[in-house]
Amino acid sequence: MPLAGNGGYTVRRYTLDFDWQAPRTPFAAVATVRATATQALSRFDLDFAGNTLRGVTVDGAPAAAVRDGDELVVTPGRPVPRGGAFTVRVAYTADPTQGRHRDDAIQDYGWVPTADGTIVCAQPDGARMIFPANDHPSLRAPVTFRITTPPGLSAVANGRLVGTDRRPGGRTRWTYDSEQPIAPQLVQMAVGRFRFVDSKGPHGLPVRDVVPDGLVTDTEAYRSLTPEHLTWLEQRLGPYPFRRYGVLVGDTDLPVALETQSLSVVPRDDLLGDRVDAERNLVHELTHHWTGDSVAVRRWSDLWLSEGHARYYERLYSDTHGGDSLEDAMRAAYEQHDQWRHDEGAPAEPTEATLFKVMRYDGSALVLYALREKVGAEAFDRIERTWVTRYRGRAAGTADFVALASQVAGEDLTPFLKPWLYGAHTPPMPGRPDWQVDPVED
Questions:
Q1: Peptidase M1 membrane alanine aminopeptidase domain spans which residues (predicted)?
Q2: DSSP state letters, 298-315
Q3: Tell me, what's the pLDDT at 136?
């Protein structure tokens, strides 16, 4: 995705004002972007796709703005000097039916309509359908949400509910603060007939689930497991890295859950079926808050670090909670690994089209399993905890992980990890001479 994100400035805060009207109905929106120029700017780009543009200002003065594919090219009346702070205000009409499709695990994304409102699934590049942004996984900024809803509907977004204000016509404006910087792909903004269910996690961590009215009772059994999942992951990865957590139940036919920061979206069907499958999904999205949300990927080619870790800990948890054994799951992945390499690229070499294929999930979890077999469980656990601690709140990539693993393990792991991450063929699994890779079929 070479066109994702833009240079020349750093976003300091997004403020999003959404005047929600009704399901599948366009509504007035304003995005205010506060930024600092990292070079002199006679013009700059924002990632912004679709929606009807109504006007752009820079520091309160009208600015020229033209579309170029997914780019909104803004030319201010006066250039912005290097180091200068500036504020961009983009007024537009948002379309809550706008989405895109991928032929991988993501499938339909962007605005995801529900019967009475919407949820947002922005990964990987759908945030630009929601608001103008610097839409790259490594670029984060705090977000303030101000969402106005009609009577009977609630709004939710990442982070903390700052307050609600009554507006004319019985409408309510909901204000949320993301509290911590957030990548555009992890933004959540949902409207619907919701019930807010509050509880506590480890150390008094606030947990707030957001559940459509008719699903509160039926989803309670699996939602109530969150404190247990938090405790289990903290024992392995250290303290939870955000100030609150919760599950947003998606009352729609979502293909996958999504780790939107501090408020994971989980499809209703995942919470109404088998417990083993439900817990796998819940633990997977929660794990992302350490690896993927707190430790962001430096570029999309590093996605294996996010999805591989989430799948590894999901499998590790399931091993002792009624699911398949980790060894059986990893052996099955090993057998298919050459085929996945052939079809979808090595773990750290995806194409845009194969970004969210199985190689980034089970195939990448297998790399972590191989590393554990190579260095031993104790050294592996130190690598993992050091990874999420050292890079907490930062972006990191494959080279960073290899260097850190080598440092913690006390040996250069480059010759071991490079073939696993980039090779055309799957290396031998340490300690498993009987494991064999299936032949590749064209």
A1: 228-420
A2: SSGGGHHHHHHHHHHHHH
A3: 97
| 403: CB partners within 8 A, 6+ apart | none
How many alpha carbons lie under 13 Å from residue 371 in its C-beta half-sphere?
A: 33
DSSP assignment letter at 291: B
Show the DSSP H helices in 179-300 as ranges.
Answer: 216-223, 226-237, 275-287
Helical H segments across 52-201, by residue range:
none
Residue 89, token pair as written in the block? 């205000």
Contact between 298 and 138 (Cβ < 8 Å): yes
Q: Are strands 264-267 and 247-250 parallel, antiparallel or unpaired?
A: parallel
Task: Give the strand pairing for 296-297 and 108-113.
Answer: unpaired
Of the candidates 118, 102, 98, the residue with the CA atom closest to the CA atom of residue 110: 98
The C-alpha atoms of residue 215 and residue 360 are separated, in whole angstroms, by 32
Domains detected in the chain:
1-95+121-182 (2.60.40.1730), 193-289 (3.30.2010.30), 296-422 (1.10.390.10)
The pLDDT score that the predictor gives to residue 50 is 76
Burial of residue 415 (CB within 10 Å: 0-12, 13-18, 19+) is: exposed
Three-state DSSP class for 397? coil
State the pLDDT confidence band at 391, using cuts at 50, 70 and 90. Answer: very high
Q: Is 74:133 a contact under the CB 8 Å cutoff?
A: no
Judge contact between 46 and 33, C-beta under 8 A: yes
pLDDT level of residue 60 (50, 70, 90 thresholds): very high
d(C-alpha 157, C-alpha 146), whole Å? 9
- The predicted model scores a pTM of 0.96
Judge if the upstream peptide bond of residue 124 is cis by omega within 30 degrees of 0.
Answer: yes
Could you tell me what percentage of the chain is helix, strand and coil, using 3-state DSSP and rounding each to the nearest 5? 30, 30, 40
